[in-house]
Amino acid sequence: MDSNDKQTGKNKTFFRSVRHALTGVRTAFTEEDNLKRDATFSIVVILLGFMLRVSAWDWLLLSIAIAIVVISEMWNTVFENMVDLVVHHQYDPLAKKIKDMSAGTVLLTAFFSSLIGLYVFVPYLWRMLF
Length: 130
Ligand SMILES: Nc1ncnc2c1ncn2[C@@H]1O[C@H](COP(=O)(O)OP(=O)(O)OP(=O)(O)O)[C@@H](O)[C@H]1O
Description:
Bound molecules: adenosine-5'-triphosphate
Largest sheet: none
Membrane topology: Multi-pass membrane protein
CATH topology: Helix Hairpins
Distance between the termini: 52 Å
Number of helices: 4
Strand content: under 5%
CATH architecture: Orthogonal Bundle
Structural class: mainly alpha
Number of domains: 1
Number of strands: 0
Organism: Lactobacillus selangorensis
Subcellular location: Cell membrane
Helix content: over 70%
Radius of gyration: 19 Å
Keywords: ATP-binding, Cell membrane, Kinase, Lipid biosynthesis, Lipid metabolism, Magnesium, Membrane, Metal-binding, Nucleotide-binding, Phospholipid biosynthesis, Phospholipid metabolism, Transferase, Transmembrane, Transmembrane helix
GO molecular function, one term: metal ion binding
């Protein structure tokens, strides 16, 4: 967070909007271990894609798989922070419901991304091995 920036109103320029959005991305990746793990995993997937020389279509599928996981993890982080902002870390059944459902969306996204990964990589690995 930019400690000198006490702005609470609308952004006056597009450049400023982008700057705040980039700050949000940096904060999420710096503070959230799950996002760091996703970034590492994404790099492994990209390296594997280069090693196996996957097609343009497969790059598109892999990009979608990576994007949906990262985006759902960022939304999960947003929900966690919003809940904590409202309940101030006090136990609340509704807070639990929201956080569990939000974590559930990450789980489902990771599952479907894994299916995409298998769909893309298994044929290449199969051809390589047999
Ligand atoms: N204020 C609260 N009231 C009730 N339950 C809570 C509250 N805060 C957290 N929990 C419970 O603890 C779990 C983990 O909390 P939280 O999501 O903040 O931690 P986390 O380790 O960052 O989770 P994740 O691994 O999904 O990012 C929630 O899914 C929920 O079940």
